[in-house]
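Section 5: illustrative case.
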C-alpha cells in the first residue's frame, strides 16, 4: 500500500459514522436502506460515506434494482493489517542523529 492509498484508508476509518457502517457490514451484506435505518442518516449523506469507503476499497457495492447492497471487502484486511504493521516498524526507519536546537 503506497502512502496515498494509506492516507485514503486511514481517513475513511477516521469517521465515527463510517466505523459504524463497517461494524454493521461485519454481520454480512446490507442494503443501503437497512444502513439508512440503523444510522439515521439522509440518503445523500449515506452515499457520501459509502463513496469514501468504496474508494478506500474497504467496502464493495453491487446494484440490484434501485438499491445498492454493500459488503466488507475482506480481501483488503491483510493489506490494511500490513499497513498498520509497517507504520509501527520504527526500527526499519534509520534514526537521524540530529540534535534538538530548541531553546
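Designed sequence:
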Amino acid at each position: 500500500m503506497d502512502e496515498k492509498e494509506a492516507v485514503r484508508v486511514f481517513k475513511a476509518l477516521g469517521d465515527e459514522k463510517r466505523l459504524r457502517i463497517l461494524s454493521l457490514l461485519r454481520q454480512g451484506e446490507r442494503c443501503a436502506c437497512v444502513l439508512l435505518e440503523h444510522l439515521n442518516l439522509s440518503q445523500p449523506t449515506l452515499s457520501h460515506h459509502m463513496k469514501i469507503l468504496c474508494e478506500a476499497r474497504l467496502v464493495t457495492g453491487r446494484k440490484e434494482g434501485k438499491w445498492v447492497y454493500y459488503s466488507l471487502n475482506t480481501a483488503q484486511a491483510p493489506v490494511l493489517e500490513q499497513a498498520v504493521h509497517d507504520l509501527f516498524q520504527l526500527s526499519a526507519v534509520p534514526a537521524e542523529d540530529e540534535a534538538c536546537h530548541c531553546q
